[in-house]
Amino acid sequence: MLRLWRLSRVCGRDLRLLWFALKHRRRPLWLLPATVMLALYALEPFNFALPLVGIVDDLLILPLVLHVMLRLLPRDIHDGFDGGALV
Length: 87
Fold this sequence. Notes:
Blueprint (H helix, E strand, L loop, with lengths): L1 H9 L1 H12 L7 H12 L3 H4 L1 H21 L3 H6 L7
């Protein structure tokens, strides 16, 4: 749980956009499986065995992959997002 909290602190706006995109009626078909894979990667047990690798994941790899995923979203999803808080 602490790992997800760290991720939310690093890229909060991206997570809000991801949540909005997941609820959007015109979301791409690849978005849900990619989100599940990203969440599983964030919680993988390998990070608990090597804490240094877990820190690199939290601060570099996960935010980067999340940002790239969101850049691939259609423009109408970005335009409909107001940047507000989670609902």
